[in-house]
Amino acid sequence: MFSIATQNLLENEKDFDPKTYVELLKRRRAELEDELGALATRQNSYSPPNRLPAEALEKIFIPSNVFCRSEEDSWLRWITTIAQVCRH
Question: Does the reported pTM lie above 0.90?
Fold first, then answer.
């Protein structure tokens, strides 16, 4: 089952010249990709690790920050590690 916007686009192909129709298809795909991204983000926000309270995250990440700062260019290494774990 397609959304109304997609159904209309697929059913009204003959109403557009090919170049315009391709542009409309590209735009619709981009809209759907944005929607899928938003849905994936919302779904992930309900996974158990993403529901941890800030206090628990503090106990995990603050000590690792102190440990890493003792090494050369560790701030970059630390922030890169955090970026792979946390989206915010």
Answer: no
